[in-house]
Amino acid sequence: MVLIVPYLPLVSQVCLALTCKRLYRLLRPALDDEQLAWPRYLASPLTLRKEFGSQPHLPRINLLLQLEDARWLYCSDCLKLHPYSCFPRGYVGIPPTRRHCSYYGGIVDLCSCLALTYTNGQRLSEWIQTGIPGQDLHRDIRRQFRYQMLNNKRFLIHKCSVTSQPDVFLTLTIVMTLDAGEKCLLVSTRYNVYWSTPHKHLGDMVNDREAYRAPFDTEPVLLCPDIHALAWLYGIYAPTLTSRNACRNCDTTFNVILRTDDGLHSVIRSERNLGAVRDGANTPRRLRLGSREWYQSSRKPGNGMERLWYFNS
């Protein structure tokens, strides 16, 4: 067995590891392989993002499909296994790559280090309301946020930066809170954009794409699933814009709140309403419909703006 293992595919090694304790001890390192980690859309290479979550040949998805049984089913939105009780009736017979755990679910990408399922949104809402993170909130998400109260208003705050772009450095401050009725989850994001060279025509309609060529395979920074932050800042047209400062698909709004005269620093602020992410305590899980706003704000792999910004640059 020891001689054979190195020649086995990763998924086969993991399946063997889950059969008995002896093989688990032998093959435990296979379970830590990065190919099996829950993938983050904005942190993935562009070639993978185009069909994100729908490729059964990828090791993680291939493994989860093999682990489906009489209790667990694969969800193509969350890229995870869920109990049958999480799915609406009739979803069992749907092909795995088209099966969703709720009608209006999906994954909301706030930044490259924060991708949230609808259930994550529910648990974050509970944290904001109670001031205490629940035990069922994944530790990786819990570590990304800091709870704060100011003037009787409760917030969750996350800060990160983007350093993968060769000519620009960005810092993001994400503030998550509940609306006045404590029903809807609101997200306000502040993008500090620092250019290495002056960019004095930001916000103008640019016909000459040489004014700024988007690096092909760098980490995208999105104002919403349809709008690339730097593309919008540069005035690149997006079909989903209802106006200069709003997306018609998800109603996200965004504005430039600071621009220095030297063209080296701009600040964008976006506002997103993720909708009501709290269901009644007695509502069966398979009947929880999710939030239409959450669904509209969830990721859209290979959307029009992404193709325009990267492939036509």
In short:
The chain is built from nine helices and 14 strands. It has helices at residues 10-17, 21-27, 46-49, 59-67, 118-130, 139-144, 229-233, 292-296, 304-311, and strands at 72-75, 80-83, 108-111, 114-116, 146-150, 153-162, 168-178, 184-195, 222-224, 227-228, 241-243, 246-247, 253-259, 265-276.
Walk me through this protein's architecture.
This protein is of the alpha+beta class. It folds into two domains: 5-98, no CATH class; 108-279 and 289-311, no CATH class. The protein is built from nine helices and 14 strands. Strands 5-6-7-8-14-13 form a six-stranded antiparallel β-sheet. It has a two-stranded antiparallel ribbon with strand order 1-2. Strands 3-4 form a two-stranded antiparallel ribbon. A hairpin with a 2-residue loop joins strand 5 (146-150) and strand 6. Helix 1 (10-17) packs antiparallel against helix 2 and helix 1 (10-17) packs parallel to helix 4 (59-67). The longest helix is centred in the middle third of the chain and has 13 residues, at 118-130. This is F-box domain-containing protein.
Attribute tags:
alpha+beta, 2 domains, six-stranded antiparallel β-sheet, F-box domain-containing protein, two-stranded antiparallel sheet
For the biggest sheet, the summary is: 6 strands, antiparallel
- The parts where pLDDT drops under 50 for at least 5 residues are none
Strand residue percentage:
25-35%
Strand order within the widest beta sheet: 5-6-7-8-14-13
What is the helix fraction of residues, given as a range? 10-25%
Mass-distribution shape = globular
Count up the helices.
9
Mean pLDDT figure: 80
Number of strands: 14
